[in-house]
Predict the 3D structure of the following.
Amino acid sequence: MMKSIRILLFFTLSVLFGLTSCEETTDVGEFDNWQSRNTQFIDSIAGVARANTYGDWEVFLAEGLDPAKQWGNECYVYCQVIEAGDGTEHPLFTDSVVINYSGRLIPSATYPDGFKFDSSYSGDFNPSFNVPVTMPLSGTVPGFYTAVQNMVDGDIWKVYIPYQLGYGEKVSASIPACSTLIFDINLVSFHH
């Protein structure tokens, strides 16, 4: 009798484990196909930006590239103008900028708004409350300084930077390789 129960128990557990091991999963890992997902994301943003360049979007070729040549979407920075400033001059690469900013990755399963990897403020952006930071523009990634060099005092932009103009194929702190960078940037001022 005891031997029959053991055999039945063994058989039941074997069937259960066998069924669960054959179960198909459709879960996508947080960073599965990350490079292609980021490329598709920037291609879709490029389409929107190029269709609205006379509206609230600006498209800039990365600093240092020859505008006479044909370049792919990965060579441009895509900027949505949230609020236009009242400044008249643009910062130079060698200037220090006074800014409020927040940087995040593309949306993912765990972070539907994109993982926030850096910010000069906590909580929601409020220009009357947040204390801006001062940084040398030359110390930022190419996509960031390309965008900021086209801003004027008071501008608030959402900036989309292809991974090639960000950290490229290198992992940087909490930023995976091949990550599109999305920044909310408010240029308060700059100085030489």
User: Anything to note?
Assistant: Residues 153 and 188 are 5 Å apart (CA to CA). Residues 1-25 have pLDDT under 50 and may be disordered. Strands lie at 57-61, 76-83, 96-104, 116-119, 133-136, 156-161, 181-191. The chain is about 25% helix and 25% strand.
